[in-house]
Design brief:
Largest sheet: 20 strands, antiparallel
Radius of gyration: 29 Å
Domain PcRGLX/YetA-like central beta-sandwich: 135-491
Number of helices: 21
Number of strands: 36
Signal peptide: 1-29
Domain PcRGLX/YetA-like C-terminal alpha/alpha toroid: 497-905
Organism: Isoptericola peretonis
Shape: globular
Domain PcRGLX/YetA-like N-terminal RIFT barrel: 44-125
Structural class: alpha+beta
């Protein structure tokens, strides 16, 4: 007889349902409204570029999100866009979220880089204008062809040529777009006498057209890297193309599923072959440098020679134009052209955040010659001729080092242009755990070590298997070698893609994202709080650069705690190192942006979201759906938790930008409650050993930290049209409200099939300070704004009122004191919420007192300034302050919500 555990049976049964629940939905899908509603309409909304001004170029096009008040517009509303002066702008719209009544909540919009540009636009309900060009998509059994009206991009449905060709005006400007991967079997730092190298090709499994115009088309490609019988490193690619544009935007995501002790990646990139037409002196290379700089090179240079071909010839080559007929040159040059070296290979490598180097050579087998160097390259290159070529680049090029732009074979009939997301010139990628365990073989030893380094170690848990990384790449099929000015404009668009955005005032008026309000300095008390919010945000923003928190796996995260003795963040001290979203740093940064509309705030939150949603979370393997607690490496800690993978941290970016990859991350988490079938999160506390075989009807899933994260995924999926997620969200919330003590009831278990919690009939209390600091307060605020659930609201408000209440108040309601709880300043926002729901002025005053007192945070008399520390006390001059990331995040969230809820009591 085969022994089948309860976990196996239920996992198999749920897997089939999960496939259906997570299937991609069409952009037009929307929930059914329970009854017709009277729609109020909406005035035009002003949209401005995030960084201000009018960008000279876009990254092929731009997409952004706009929220709408409940009941204002129908769920299938169409929109028109115009410049402030009234010029029509073709726009494509799709709905990304609906209110419970079926009215539209969030829309995403797309404009092309060829559309009229202005400082501001008016987005209004109406019929979108038609442009000169419209995207067309042709699907055949073996290929997909997207025509923007300027370029035609052909995608293969199988094989290793992801993009078969990019054509413009009938000519192939680039072809054989493919993924390249190199690995070796030992680390560079441990090389022995023998090292094995391999190269893999990314091969296509499935291709899907996710959008087909008229302004924007999106093609999704999935596959794996293969060589011989081995296939690994799965990838998801999204190509975005825009009507009338010659640009192609690529979102490249890969998932690490190798053996960290044997698979050391030495190169990871995307490569195109570029046909090279014409004479060697009419072939051009361009690299972008800092501050708008451009390096312009020719494969065969005719400037600086001993003999002068003529001013017209020299000028044309420097500008990238076709050179005059050689018969017009000085014959002393034309008769000797064959003696001038042809520089066929070029490279710009950015191996650190602080320096790049450009080199070139005549070809394989010959030495590289140093050309120039600099600090931070914006990450754009070009190879081609006056009749066309390919510009290719990568966003966050220097931030995500080690990177490289490489051109090879430009002196032959075909050049290869490669964007290396991991440069072959760098040390091989080493993802091994950073220590040997130090004898921590048992739970008691591991818990004892936790007491000194704050690292929760367990053998086998510090694995990178299943983590991911997403990079944004750009390609432009240009009709000619660009001028230096135009190339610099493209480089800027590549480095910081222009993004339209609606104002904080409009976003707030739409009633999205719970309790927040735009910046208000109308009173001295408000102004004081605003100054403090600015101070802590500015400090952490500046620390990113001062402490060089950059690198392929690190960029976007910040450190957890500071070591004042060393004047250094605790990068090497166990659980005090990388923050990994601990205590909702992501949420704080997003709410700061929502209030201020500040571009730097958005970019900081964006980088964090890209990192924490990919690197700190498992997307494959046994812990899929879980994130990793803070540590020296992003995957090092043995605490794998939904509070880190947390959908509440991904929602803002998805709705504000319409970014499909973020949408994937959110949908991944809809079934994250199933992870409690495979991992006992309390194993060290209860001393569990042996096989974990839980009862699916009585899982150890918590009603606060755990449920709050899962509830965020369900809420988002419901907004996106998932009625099953709505049912599970409400069933679970109602079941918690029915518990004798609601969110603080002890001894609860969770039924995976029904999404309901249960406990014994008697009141008991189990509550911790971390209960609501991972998004629970925020998701409950949004949920209770959406539904009429008096019992749920009453129980939640009770929790909010009692957390910072007196022992007597807690005992009177729940039968016991809640003990000596921590993070009282953080819970000032819970008190403020209860004050509003209960219309209780005394509670409002109490909330401000809790915020000002600053328990486990920043009291009013805290030192809000910074101190400059100069060498030789430090390696280089830095600023330090009495701030920690946890305290800043929780103070920020508490202050923002107190201002929004009870600001009149400040």
């Amino acid at each position: 007889m085969v022994d089948v555990s309860r976990r196996t049976v239920l996992t198999s049964a749920l897997a089939a349902g999960a496939v259906a629940a997570l299937a991609p939905r069409s952009a037009s899908a929307q929930p059914a409204s329970s009854a017709p509603v009277a729609l109020t309409g909406h005035d035009p909304v002003e949209v401005r570029w995030l960084e201000g001004g009018t960008p000279a170029a876009l990254a092929a096009g731009a997409t952004w999100g706009v929220p709408w008040p409940r009941g204002a517009l129908p769920g299938d509303q169409r929109f028109a866009l115009a410049t402030a002066s009234g010029a029509d702008v073709p726009v494509q719209t799709w709905t990304t979220a609906w209110w419970p009544d079926g009215s539209v909540k969030w829309t995403a919009h797309a404009v092309s880089g060829s559309a009229p540009r202005a400082e501001s636009y008016r987005l209004t309900p109406g019929t979108p204008a038609r442009g000169e060009h419209a995207i067309t998509v042709q699907e055949d059994p073996g290929r997909i062809v997207v025509d923007t009206g300027v370029v035609q991009v052909e995608f293969g449905r199988h094989g290793d040529k992801v993009v078969r060709a990019i054509r413009r005006g009938g000519a192939v400007l680039a072809k054989d777009g493919r993924l390249v991967l190199q690995r070796q079997d030992v680390a560079d730092t441990d090389r022995g006498a023998k090292v094995g190298f391999e190269e893999f090709a990314g091969t296509v499994d499935t291709v899907t057209v996710e959008q087909s115009g008229p302004v924007r088309a999106v093609v999704r490609v999935e596959g794996k890297h293969r060589k011989g019988r081995r296939e690994w490193l799965p990838f998801v690619l999204r190509f975005s193309l825009f009507a009338g544009s010659d640009g192609v935007r690529l979102m490249h995501t890969f998932f690490f599923d190798g053996d960290e002790d044997r698979d050391f990646i030495t190169g990871l990139g995307v490569r195109f072959t570029v046909p090279m037409r014409g004479e060697l002196y009419d072939r051009h290379v361009r690299f972008a440098g800092p501050d708008g700089g451009v390096l312009a090179e020719a494969v065969r240079g005719v400037t600086g020679l001993r003999r002068d071909p003529g001013a017209a010839v020299r000028t044309a080559q420097v500008e990238g134009r076709a050179l005059p007929d050689p018969s017009t040159w000085d014959p002393r040059v034309t008769s000797r052209l064959h003696w001038i070296p042809a520089w066929g290979d070029h490279s710009l490598s950015q191996l650190t955040a602080h320096g790049f180097e450009i080199r070139k050579r005549t070809g394989s087998g010959h030495s590289w010659i140093r050309v120039d160097a600099g600090t931070r390259a914006p990450g754009l290159g070009y190879v081609g001729t006056p009749s066309g070529g390919l510009a290719f680049g990568m966003r966050d090029f220097w931030q995500l080092h080690p990177t490289e732009l490489e051109i090879t074979g430009a002196a032959s009939d075909e050049a290869d242009a490669t964007v290396w997301m991991w440069s072959p010139r760098a040390e091989a990628m080493d993802l091994r755990f950073y220590h040997d365990g130090m004898g921590q073989d048992t739970y008691p030893e591991q818990l004892d070590a936790l007491e000194i380094t704050y690292e929760d170690y367990e053998p086998g848990f510090g694995t990178p298997y299943g983590v991911a990384r997403t990079s944004e790449l750009m390609f432009w099929a240009l009709a000619a070698t660009p001028t230096a000015e135009r190339f610099a404009q493209l480089a800027e668009a590549n480095a910081t893609p222009p993004l339209p955005a609606s104002s904080p005032e409009h976003n707030h008026s739409a009633g999205v994202f719970g309790s927040w309000s735009p910046v208000d300095r109308s009173t001295p008390a408000r102004a004081a709080v605003e100054d403090r919010l600015d101070a802590i945000h500015r400090y952490h923003l500046e620390q990113v650069d001062q402490r060089s928190w950059y690198g392929f796996w690190d960029y976007g995260d910040v450190m957890h705690s500071y070591d004042a003795d060393r004047h250094q963040w605790r990068y090497d001290v166990g659980g005090y190192a990388w923050d990994n979203s601990e205590l909702s740093t992501d949420l704080w940064l997003w709410y700061h942006y929502l209030r201020t509309g500040d571009a730097a705030a958005f970019r900081l939150a964006e980088a964090m979201g890209r990192h924490t949603g990919e690197v700190d979370v498992y997307h494959l393997g046994r812990w899929k759906g879980l994130g990793t607690r803070h540590g020296v490496q992003h995957w090092a800690d043995s605490a794998k938790q939904v509070r880190i993978s947390n959908a509440n941290y991904r929602r803002h970016y998805y709705f504000l930008t319409g970014d499909e990859r973020s949408g994937d991350l959110l949908r991944e988490l809809v079934d994250s409650d199933r992870t409690y079938l495979v991992l006992n999160a309390s194993r060290k506390v209860d001393g569990s050993t042996g096989e974990y075989d839980p009862d699916p009807t009585a899982l150890p899933l918590g009603t606060t930290t755990d449920w709050g994260a899962i509830a965020g995924a369900w809420l988002t999926e419901w907004e996106r049209g998932g009625e099953e997620a709505r049912d599970r969200l409400l069933a679970s919330a109602r079941s918690i409200a029915r518990l004798p003590n609601g969110w603080v009831q002890g001894g609860t278990t969770y039924d995976l099939a029904t999404a309901e919690f249960s406990s014994g009939p008697d009141k008991s209390v189990s509550v911790g300070s971390l209960s609501s600091v991972f998004g629970l307060v925020e998701v409950m605020t949004e949920l209770l704004d959406l539904v009429d659930e008096p019992e749920v609201e009453a129980k939640w408000v009770e929790f909010c009122r009692l957390y910072n209440g007196t022992r007597a108040e807690q005992e009177a309601v729940t039968g016991a004191s809640w003990g000596s709880l921590n993070l009282k300043q953080s819970y000032a926002r819970a008190t403020a919420y209860a004050a509003v729901r209960l219309d209780d002025a005394a509670l409002a005053a109490r909330a401000w007192k809790e915020l000002r007192t600053g328990h486990a945070g920043y009291p009013d008399d805290h030192d809000w300034g910074t101190r400059r520390v100069e060498p030789p006390a430090v390696l280089h001059a830095v600023d330090e302050a009495d701030f920690s990331t946890n305290a800043s995040a929780q103070y920020g969230l508490a202050a923002i919500q107190c201002l929004a809820l009870v600001g009149d009591r400040a």
